[in-house]
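User: I've been trying to design a sequence by hand for this structure and keep getting stuck. Would you show me what you'd pick, starting by listing the structure so we're on the same page?

Assistant: Good idea, let's start from the same input. This is the structure you sent:
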């Protein structure tokens, strides 16, 4: 069994995983079983390193002294030549001046090289941490003040140039200028190469290239299957596959025109100079984008426009009669938008590409999104689609289903089930729009690019799948009693309370941890300067907002009864989605917070469901 080479508490140089950069660290412990050293960096980060990744400080100092000094014989020879009695005094002064000038140039070049290599510390790995408004960890940046590179590739070329320079008859100034240009080009090439390599997406999700290729076809097929099943008299799984409609019945130019009118109307509301302007989280280049928070105002204007249409006897149940055609129109538009987004991303600078969509594989980057924040002027395409056309459209579709139910069944009032579904989901949408600013910290904005996944999800999946319960109730009315309706309402209120209070608790702590109102909250400090809450909702489970989401999703489906499983598709999908996102959160948080996250997991063992998962 190998012995421990570095003692506990010893200050050494530790290599950062995945790079050639060495940083000053302190050995905290040694594991005899795994033969790994636990070291602590200056910023508080703790990592486990192999012995081969650790070197003593003396080895670096020795190497540095060798590279920056010349041999004694050369120094003696130079000294004897400069003091030769055969040379005139003026020549001695010129030689001494040129020697000092050459030393200054050499020192300047080395300093510039060291400075450029210090810049490479910016590419030290750090993770940004998803969806559902406030439920994700915020992103942070790490600033390190010192780093040492084990090998400087510039050194051999520069030393050779200096040796050749002594025997060259060209003027000194020309040699000096050439050396400076050569050094700057080399430094720029190294920085550009490392920056490009570090920004590539290495971990592929959703099954990689094959999985994302299949999802491009599977997601639209799922939407159309669900809508066709809801149209059946008996939407049982035993009736698979449902009868396919004629292809010509799936498309109508007028329907597509109505969809375009809706999309650009929401774009117009987005551009109105109302609402406050806030800054998003810092990008990889340190820049912060500005966003106008006016989603709730857009919702009010939309409600006024819909009310005006109803006042003038516009039949809103037109949406129900052409629901499949609207879904096809939205899918076609989202595909066209995705193609446009990918083509324009090919000309985007490297720093503007998405961390999760820069793999170099066409299908994967097309699906996940290649560019992080595509904008036309100040119009942010991803941020606009995230909440406006699809989420507000969800409420309009629910209202259209309510009116269609009344017309088809000759009712003067909508059913109690339809009222519950509309009310619960309206509360959810209004909450999202009222807390619009919180979406700027989600992974959809900070990490995911804008490609087919988000374009299809925002414009097709959200409005046409999330409204599945209301669409189902039109063709399959379900009567429920007032006591049952009261119980379902209480369940939805519990889910909403958990969802909103957990998010508010975290957001308030994030804004001002020293707030006296939050003095009762306990947390684990991390190397990033943030704290991990271990009391309140976040001490109950690791993702209490996801728990509230799932409870609300169940309350939305219960008014549809238990005759068929189809209305509960949303619950099953939501559980799978949140479990996937929770696993992704766990991965990012473990990389971001290190040992602090492991202590948090020991303190809070349950992820979403207490005592279960």
């Amino acid at each position: 069994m190998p012995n421990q080479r570095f003692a506990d508490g010893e200050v050494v140089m530790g290599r950062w995983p995945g790079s050639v950069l060495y940083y000053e660290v302190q050995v905290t412990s040694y594991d005899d079983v795994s033969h790994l050293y636990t070291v602590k960096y200056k910023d508080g980060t703790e990592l486990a390193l192999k012995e081969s990744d650790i070197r003593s400080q003396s080895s670096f100092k020795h190497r540095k002294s060798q590279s920056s000094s010349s041999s004694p014989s050369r120094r003696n020879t130079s000294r004897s030549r400069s003091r030769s009695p055969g040379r005139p005094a003026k020549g001695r002064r010129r030689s001494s001046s040129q020697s000092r000038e050459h030393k200054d140039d050499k020192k300047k070049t080395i300093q510039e090289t060291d400075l450029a290599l210090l810049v490479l510390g910016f590419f030290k790995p750090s993770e940004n941490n998803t969806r559902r408004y406030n439920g994700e960890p915020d992103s942070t940046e790490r600033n390190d003040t010192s780093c040492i590179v084990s090998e400087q590739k510039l050194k051999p070329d520069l030393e050779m140039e200096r040796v050749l320079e002594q025997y060259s008859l060209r003027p000194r100034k020309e040699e000096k200028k050439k050396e400076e240009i050569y050094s700057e080009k080399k430094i720029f090439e190294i920085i550009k190469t490392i920056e490009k390599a570090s920004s590539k997406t290495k971990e592929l999700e959703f099954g990689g290239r094959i999985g994302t290729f299949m999802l491009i076809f599977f997601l639209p097929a799922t939407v159309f299957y669900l809508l066709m099943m809801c149209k059946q008299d008996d939407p049982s799984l035993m009736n698979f596959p449902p009868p396919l409609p004629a292809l010509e019945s799936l498309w109508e130019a007028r329907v597509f025109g109505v969809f375009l009118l809706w999309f650009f109307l929401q774009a117009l509301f987005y551009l109105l100079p109302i609402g406050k302007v806030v800054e998003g989280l810092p990008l990889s280049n340190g820049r912060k984008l500005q966003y106008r928070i006016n989603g709730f105002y857009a919702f009010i204007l939309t409600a006024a426009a819909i009310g005006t249409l109803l006042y003038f006897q516009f039949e809103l149940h037109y949406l129900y009669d052409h629901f499949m055609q609207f879904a096809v129109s939205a899918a076609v538009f989202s595909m066209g938008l995705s193609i446009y987004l990918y083509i324009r991303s090919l000309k985007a600078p490297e720093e503007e590409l998405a961390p999760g969509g820069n793999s170099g594989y066409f299908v994967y980057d097309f699906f996940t999104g290649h560019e992080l924040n595509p904008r036309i002027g100040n119009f942010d395409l991803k941020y606009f689609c995230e909440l406006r056309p699809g989420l507000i459209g969800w409420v309009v579709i629910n209202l259209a289903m309510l009116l269609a139910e009344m017309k088809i069944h000759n009712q003067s009032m909508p059913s109690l089930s339809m009222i519950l579904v509309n009310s619960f989901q309206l509360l959810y949408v209004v909450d999202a729009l009222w807390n619009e600013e919180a979406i700027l910290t989600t992974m959809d904005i900070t990490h995911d690019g804008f490609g087919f996944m988000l374009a299809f999800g925002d414009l097709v999946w959200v409005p046409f799948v999330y409204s599945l319960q209301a669409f189902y109730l039109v063709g399959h009315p379900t009567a429920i009693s007032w006591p049952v309706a009261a119980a379902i309402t209480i369940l939805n209120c519990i889910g909403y309370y958990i969802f909103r209070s957990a998010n508010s608790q975290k957001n308030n702590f994030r804004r001002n941890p020293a707030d006296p109102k939050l003095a009762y909250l306990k947390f684990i400090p991390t190397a990033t300067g943030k704290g991990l809450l271990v009391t309140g909702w976040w001490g109950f489970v690791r993702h209490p907002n996801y728990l509230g989401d799932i409870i609300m999703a169940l309350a939305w489906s219960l008014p549809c009864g238990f005759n068929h499983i189809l209305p509960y598709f949303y619950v099953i999908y939501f559980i799978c989605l949140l479990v996937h996102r929770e696993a992704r959160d766990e991965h990012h948080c473990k990389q971001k917070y290190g040992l602090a996250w492991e202590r948090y997991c020991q303190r809070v063992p349950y992820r979403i469901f207490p005592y279960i998962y």
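That's my pick for every position. To get oriented when you compare it with your attempt: Residues 480-612 form one domain. The mean pLDDT is 78.
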